[in-house]
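Structure first, sequence second, as always.
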């Protein structure tokens, strides 16, 4: 049986009440400001009023004090945040199919209709005031009842003769009306026994806040009197009243403006104030703050570590008291929401006699959960005491599996943990890396042909100039002129789509790794921006601002790479032209060798390896940058904070990259600023993320810092393992800048002008 907030059996109604009983009106926004000129006598009057059932001014006083006193505010926020920071879930009420359907419906309603963080914050206001109320505004859509919650001012309520809560309205401004059933969520905090108006922590805190207010006022007056020198003006006996008034004005002026004009025979003397640091007031204020911390958090060492300090053991003991309070707050909140929100939601949508799901906060620490697991293992395996499945699912907060779901199966009896190098999970990740690299390789091969087509117009324009030239020197000038007019739009757009898609692919791949399940895309194509967004929209969590930032960065790099690519094949032609001039070749001879030149340099022909390299390097970099961005999200580093360097280890793998293979470091180790792949032209190395549990279970040795130098056994040479030249930076942390050191000066100038 579910009991209501009043302790009586839960009331059932046939349909939701859609009347709004406690709307926020204009008069609700104004206060009587009871904290103005607050005194012990005034506090006592307000407390007596509340004992007689009128809590209007009491609630206003609590609200004002919490808003005025920074320490009070921070302590309550700390306590509330401790609950709000907990993980929570909605649990099935039983093991029947209907129980699962009801719980799933409640989960969907919570996700679609309710902001639970705001609801938690509003209901946790009961910690200070003793209670907090939210009104349920019911909406009927497609035959279903859906709730919306609004917080209501506590001053709109009062307590009846039997301490039941009542609502003040125009018809009942004194004694209030009885609360209608299934309309209000009432969270009560019972920090002490007795009257409900005294149940909140603010009842105790108010006195300390009042005393601190007096202390601070006296402190300010003390500082004003003794914190500045006293200015004394002296005049002789012959001074007239006018002279005395002028002297007084001068003294006052010197106090505020630090300047004044007086008679030369008049003396102004500055007398230094008595030396005092106000230690008495500091001690009083700190005492009040410490007492407030005790009242709100149950301890002081986690918030009020002063000069006196405290032992670590004592701090941990007191912090445990705070955790007990947090658990109590969470359990009370969960009970309230199940009783006042979930119960009517289930009633209106599924009818009576249906079990109500319950809200569970993760109040147990991991250490406690481990101890519990060991205890149950002893009970079941060693003692042989039978335990029901339902109890086990409830004890560990695990949802009951439903029919047709894939189930995790325990290892076969007698199996031993596999060595790290043969670990199946790791092998799965490594196989995924290989599969992903195969996808990237196929992607690049498709881009190669498109890249050649994108540069075809450029090559046609260059060939035309060469065909029309009659002199090699003339040709050089004409090539510079035609270079300035080349249009890189086609190549740029192709690079934009390629880089954008590759980066999102890298992010999606990391986002898909959940519970060591790896999902990769079997086919990857250079998509249009709109297509890429649609394709990856459900796979990669990105905010609009984050997406725009990514798109801007991709476009900027594609623009630069396209321009550099044009300059590179033009530089190859310039180098060939320079050699032709030095060898005394004719234009005709140069023209004859042009096709061979462009094929040998990899810009044309059946094997356009230079174009291939352009796309491979940039796509590989974009892919790894996407992975890095997703691996460094808050959720990712919390779940898998350790990274392992993974080399392909085939005949093309560089020795230095093979040396890094299998090394594991934290994600924030400086090593990744230098060694995050790609680490050279054509580098296919990757990074595998590991959880702390994987590292611990397998006894992995965590490396730190840069790789150590080794000695070649045969030659005795000391080898410092470094990435390839120009690749010793993390591409996700550095802006792309092309190397123009070997570019012809005239060509470089033309490039910069473009």
């Amino acid at each position: 049986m579910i009991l209501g907030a009043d302790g009586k059996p839960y009331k059932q109604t046939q349909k939701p009440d859609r009347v709004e009983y406690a709307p926020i009106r204009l008069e609700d926004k104004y206060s009587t400001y009871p904290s103005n000129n607050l005194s012990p006598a005034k506090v006592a009057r307000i407390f007596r009023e509340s004992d007689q059932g009128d809590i209007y001014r009491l609630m206003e006083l609590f609200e004002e004090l919490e808003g005025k006193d920074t320490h009070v505010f921070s302590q309550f926020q700390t306590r509330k945040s401790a609950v709000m920071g907990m993980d929570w879930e909605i649990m099935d009420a039983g093991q029947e199919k209907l129980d699962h359907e009801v719980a799933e419906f409640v989960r969907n309603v919570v996700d679609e209709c309710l902001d639970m963080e705001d609801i938690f914050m509003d209901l946790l206001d009961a910690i200070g005031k003793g209670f907090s109320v939210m009104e349920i505004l019911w909406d009927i859509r497609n035959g279903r009842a859906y709730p919306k919650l609004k917080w209501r001012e506590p001053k709109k309520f009062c307590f009846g003769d039997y301490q039941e809560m009542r609502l003040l309205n125009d018809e009942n401004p004194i004694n209030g009306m009885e609360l209608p059933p299934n309309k209000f969520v009432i969270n009560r905090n019972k920090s002490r026994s007795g009257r409900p108006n005294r149940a909140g922590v603010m009842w105790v805190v108010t006195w300390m806040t009042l005393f601190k207010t007096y202390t601070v006022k006296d402190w300010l007056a003390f500082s004003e009197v003794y914190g500045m020198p006293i200015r004394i003006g002296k005049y002789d006996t012959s001074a007239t009243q006018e002279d005395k008034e002028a002297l007084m004005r001068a003294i006052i002026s010197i106090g505020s403006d630090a300047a004044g004009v007086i008679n030369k025979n008049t003396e102004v003397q500055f007398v230094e104030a008595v030396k005092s640091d106000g230690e008495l007031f500091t001690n009083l204020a700190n005492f009040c703050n410490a007492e407030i911390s005790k009242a709100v958090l149950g301890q002081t060492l986690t918030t009020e570590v002063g000069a006196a300090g405290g032992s670590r053991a004592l701090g941990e003991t007191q912090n445990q008291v705070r955790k007990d309070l947090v658990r109590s707050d969470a359990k009370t909140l969960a009970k309230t929401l199940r009783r006042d929100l979930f119960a009517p939601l289930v009633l209106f949508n599924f009818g009576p006699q249906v079990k109500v799901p319950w809200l569970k906060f993760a109040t147990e620490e991991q250490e406690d959960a481990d101890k519990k697991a060991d205890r149950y293992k002893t009970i079941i395996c060693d003692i042989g005491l039978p335990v029901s499945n339902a109890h086990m699912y409830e004890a560990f907060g695990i949802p009951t599996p439903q029919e047709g779901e894939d189930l995790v199966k325990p290892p076969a009896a007698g199996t031993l943990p596999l060595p790290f190098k043969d670990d199946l999970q790791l092998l799965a990740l490594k196989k995924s890396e290989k599969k992903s690299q195969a996808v990237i390789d196929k992607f690049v091969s498709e881009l190669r042909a498109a890249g050649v087509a994108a540069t075809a117009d450029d090559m046609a324009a260059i060939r035309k100039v060469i065909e029309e030239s009659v002199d090699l020197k003339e040709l050089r000038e004409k090539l510079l002129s035609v270079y300035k007019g080349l249009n890189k739009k086609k190549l740029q757009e192709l690079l934009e789509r390629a880089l954008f898609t590759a980066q999102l692919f890298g992010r999606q791949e990391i986002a898909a790794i959940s519970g060591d399940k790896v999902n990769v895309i079997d086919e990857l194509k250079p998509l249009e921006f709109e297509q890429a967004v649609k394709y990856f929209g459900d796979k990669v969590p990105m905010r609009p601002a984050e997406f725009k930032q990514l798109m801007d960065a991709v476009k900027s790099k594609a623009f630069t790479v396209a321009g550099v690519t044009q300059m590179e094949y033009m530089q190859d032609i310039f180098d060939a032209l320079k050699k032709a001039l030095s060898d005394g070749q004719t234009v005709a001879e140069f023209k004859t060798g042009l096709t061979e030149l462009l094929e040998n340099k990899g810009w044309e022909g059946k094997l356009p390896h230079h174009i291939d390299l352009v796309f491979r390097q940039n796509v590989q970099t974009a892919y790894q940058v996407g992975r890095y961005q997703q691996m460094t999200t808050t959720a990712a580093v919390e779940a898998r904070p350790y990274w392992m360097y993974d080399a392909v280890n085939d005949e093309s793998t560089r020795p230095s990259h093979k040396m890094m293979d299998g090394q594991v470091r934290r994600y924030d180790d400086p090593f990744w600023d230098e060694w995050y792949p790609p680490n050279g032209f054509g580098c296919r190395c990757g990074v595998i993320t590991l959880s702390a549990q994987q590292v611990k279970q397998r006894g992995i040795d965590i490396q730190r810092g840069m790789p150590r130098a080794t000695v070649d056994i045969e030659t005795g040479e000391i080898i410092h393992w470094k990435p390839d030249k120009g690749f010793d930076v993390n591409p996700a942390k550095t802006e792309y800048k092309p190397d123009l050191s070997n570019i012809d000066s005239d060509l470089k100038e033309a490039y910069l002008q473009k």
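Margin note: Residues 424-631 form one domain.
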